[in-house]
Design goal:
The protein contains 11 helices and 5 strands. By secondary structure, it is an alpha/beta fold. InterPro entries: CheY-like_superfamily (IPR011006), NreC/VraR/RcsB-like_REC (IPR058245), Sig_transdc_resp-reg_C-effctor (IPR016032), Sig_transdc_resp-reg_receiver (IPR001789), Tscrpt_reg_LuxR_C (IPR000792), WalR-like (IPR039420). One of its GO terms (molecular function) is DNA binding.
């Protein structure tokens, strides 16, 4: 059974080139081509292809808008952005809208074909430059996670009890330790999490849990 594909791309030469290469493959077939956003918006739901190759900057609207509006109507369709734009805002807006892949125009046809197969099988293909941007975005959050990982098991237990609203004396009684020991643990927690008070510590703890 071949992978059914729709192409939404207002550059006709590129649209037709994609169709020609895709249709040359034994395991996939282009079942629709769209050269503007409105046409795609109106007709994609009825066609419901396995994969949509979506340009971001169409002449009449953004491809991101199309995905946002059609995602719920087309739960079994996977969208791959194929565009010349690689700025952070468009990347993350595309992924938030529901795109499962993001390719920069200029990728080899082999990469595009393998990405179609990949997304069809549940993957999330991206150009290397895009993948690096996504990783850097998450790396900015790593220092906070690292601080939490530095806590000992006992410190994590005490932090959890603090988040439940227990007082130092109640924590001491529950863990069979002295209040001074509790205070020492709390001081270590503040230092490792880079916070100054209980509220900040609890907020960070809740963020880690979420």
């Amino acid at each position: 059974m071949s992978i059914s594909i729709a192409i939404v791309e207002d550059e006709k030469n590129y649209n037709n080139a994609l169709k020609k290469v895709i249709n040359y493959q034994q395991d996939m077939k282009v079942i629709a081509q769209f050269f503007d956003g409105n046409d795609a918006m109106q007709n994609l739901p009825a066609i419901s292809p396995d994969v949509v190759m979506m340009d971001i900057q169409l002449q009449d609207m953004l491809g991101i808008e199309i995905i946002e509006k059609l995602r719920k109507e087309m739960p079994n369709t996977q969208f791959i952005m194929c565009t010349s734009f690689d700025d952070d805002e468009k990347i993350f807006n595309s992924l938030k809208a529901g795109a499962m892949g993001y390719l920069v125009k200029g990728e080899s046809m082999d990469k595009i074909l393998s990405s179609i197969r990949d997304v069809y099988q549940g993957g999330a293909p991206m150009s290397f430059s895009i993948a690096r941007k996504v990783l850097k975005h998450f790396e900015r959050k790593l220092p906070e996670i690292k601080g939490f990982d530095e806590l000992t098991e006992r410190e994590k237990e005490i932090l959890e009890l603090l988040s439940e609203g227990l007082l130092y004396k109640e924590i001491a009684d529950k863990k069979c330790i002295s209040i001074d020991t509790v205070k020492k643990h709390v001081g270590n927690i503040y230092r490792k999490l880079h916070v100054n008070n209980k509220v900040e510590a609890i907020n960070k703890f809740n963020n880690f849990k979420n």
